[in-house]
Design goal:
- By secondary structure, the chain is mostly helical.
- It is 71% helix and 2% strand.
- The chain has helices spanning 2-17, 30-44, 48-54, 61-74, 95-100, 113-124, 128-145, 153-169, 175-187, 191-204, 209-220, 225-237, 243-259, 263-276, 282-290, 300-313, 317-330, 333-344, 350-366, 370-387, 390-407, and strands at 77-79, 83-86, 106-108.
- It has a three-stranded antiparallel sheet.
- Helix 8 packs across helix 9.
- It is elongated and about 80 Å long.
Amino acid sequence: MKRKIFTLLVILMCSNVFAEKWNIYAGADETTIETIKKCDEQIEQKKYQSAVNTVGSCSNEYIIYKYIEVCTQYFAQSMMHSMFAFKDLEEGETLYDVRTGEGPFNMVYRDDPDTIIDNYKKEHGNSIVLELARANYYFDALKRYGDQWLKTPEEILTFVKDVYSRAYAKEIYDVCIIDKYASILLQELNFAEAEKLYSLLTEKEPTFGNYWYNLALSRMWQNNYQGAIEPAKMAVENTEEDPNYHLDAYLILADSYSYSKDFESAEKVLLDAHEKYDYQPIVFQRLGELYLSYPENRNDEKANLYLDKALSVVCDDTVIYNCVNVCLNSGTPQMTIDFCTRNMKIHKDKFAQGVFKYFLAQLYFMTEDSKKAKKTIEDAEKIFKKLKNEQWQKNCADFKAEINGNEK
């Protein structure tokens, strides 16, 4: 028994000696490195069935780590993340095509990742790399299945946070691990620690805009608005795959400027955003806020201009509601009434007319004009009845009941 324990300690010590920041595989032997290199080449070629076969032996902790990466990131189909199917993609084919289509793929009948790790651990002992493999597996299952998986979110987060924090302290990690750990800290509102990790990630991957965005966000939540400007600029300069996500970079840069009282720069950023995202009403909504939310930058005329422009981009219930909220929270009830009545003359669509009347009724009620509120909500209700919109009919009926209850 003593000899067995001594051997385990040596294994763990060796793992730490060969640890190298950003390189999980630093302690692996040459054969393992070659196997992982071959697997990476197959992933690059989108030969995911071949890749999983290359590391399917799970012969050591590093191969297990890579195997779980292939399972969780490159599967064609997953059954509760316990069984996985894979496919070598054809030219022009994507994983999205395979996951959403009905094409053929090969289900791999192997032990689930938890069992693979447990069996290896029983025979060879534990290691931080093995724990990281399990943590990555659990984290991915949580992301994809939420509270519908085999373990609860609480169980998963307790485990992965412990593993990631110890790996970070020992500098045994890769980009994937720091990214996951930082996202957990951000979600838990631990902005100071999240900032440290996103600073590391931006140094390592300076062209990945999302890391710059989250670094700016971490600083904003710590009231370090000046410090958020440069990473927010970098987020704007390094585009995201999804253009709508990249719009967030412009918005946080504008916020960094406005909270720093540089309103001119904030307006310029938002106008630049409109040039690129002229189909997004939120840009004009935020410009309206810029001229209402800060007393030293207050300009009702400009605010009204920009809020009206938001409705010229999209005039639906969501945008109307957002603009009404801006007017009401940062302006006055009368300003909000004027906004609705002014735009009712411009936007003649029946649904929009009903929504304007619904909000006007609430505003009249707020300003203690119950008679006008009652008539306006009845007008709105008639419009929605003609449109056969049951949800908005219910909204009107509920508000009518509130008015009538207040009159008793």
